[in-house]
Structure formats: structure tokens, C-alpha cells
Amino acid sequence: MSRFDFSPLYRSAIGFDRLASLMENAASNGSNGNSGYPPYNIELLSENQYRISMAVAGFARNELEITSHENTLMVKGHKAQEQQGRNYLYQGIAERGFERRFQLADHIKVTGADLENGLLHIDLVREVPEAAKPRTISIG
Description:
Elements: H1 7-10, H2 19-28, E1 40-46, E2 49-55, E3 64-69, E4 72-77, E5 98-103, E6 108-116, E7 119-126
Antiparallel strand pairs: 1-2, 2-7, 3-4, 4-5, 6-7
């Protein structure tokens, strides 16, 4: 199946913020079939600030990797292989690795990440450069 680039059509839309829909579409196309794992929230903190919160209970800081390249944010989790010697009667906690990709809109930058109480918080900000901002032209 071929892919079509509809981005020129979106440029003519007025009043619609595409960040959430782009991120959701990218996440729904999970690369390893785990499109629902781990669960996440996308929060609007202010007009130009966003936060992605992912439930990564059981993962340590050194088992998580966050990469931002061009307009793609990738979060990977690799569980250390310390399962040997354990004899589970029931294992309901998912301890599998994951890879989740988010397609970011133009001028979105990752400003930081924090792991607290099993939630990975990734902070994003929209930084539009001065050259791309609209400017008023005086009529002479």
C-alpha cells in the first residue's frame, strides 16, 4: 500500500491544533505490535507547553531511553534479564520491552523528562522562531 503526503492540505486548516492528532496517529502505528502498551496521556499545560505521561511501572531509569530526532520522539523500554531464579505462581505485571514513537508537529522541542511513581513525564514546548512568526507590515 502506498502512502500519500497530506501535509499540504493541513497547512490551509485554520484554528486546529494538529499536535495531539499527529502524536496519536503515530502511536497507533506501533512498530512492534504493542500499540496499547504502555498506556499514556497527552496533556496541554499551556498554549505552547505539552506533557506526555507514560505508565512505565517496573522500569528503572537505566532501562528507559528517550530519543528525539527531527520530528519524531521515540521512547524505548528494555527490561533487564533478571528473571532467572524466580518462580511465579501468577505474573500479571507486564515486564516486556516496548518502543513507542510520536510524530511531533513543527517547532516542537523536548525540554525534559522525569520518572516519578511509575510515570515517565516528557515535557514538550512549541518554540516558533521569529522568522516563522507572522509580522505586521505597515502601509506606507
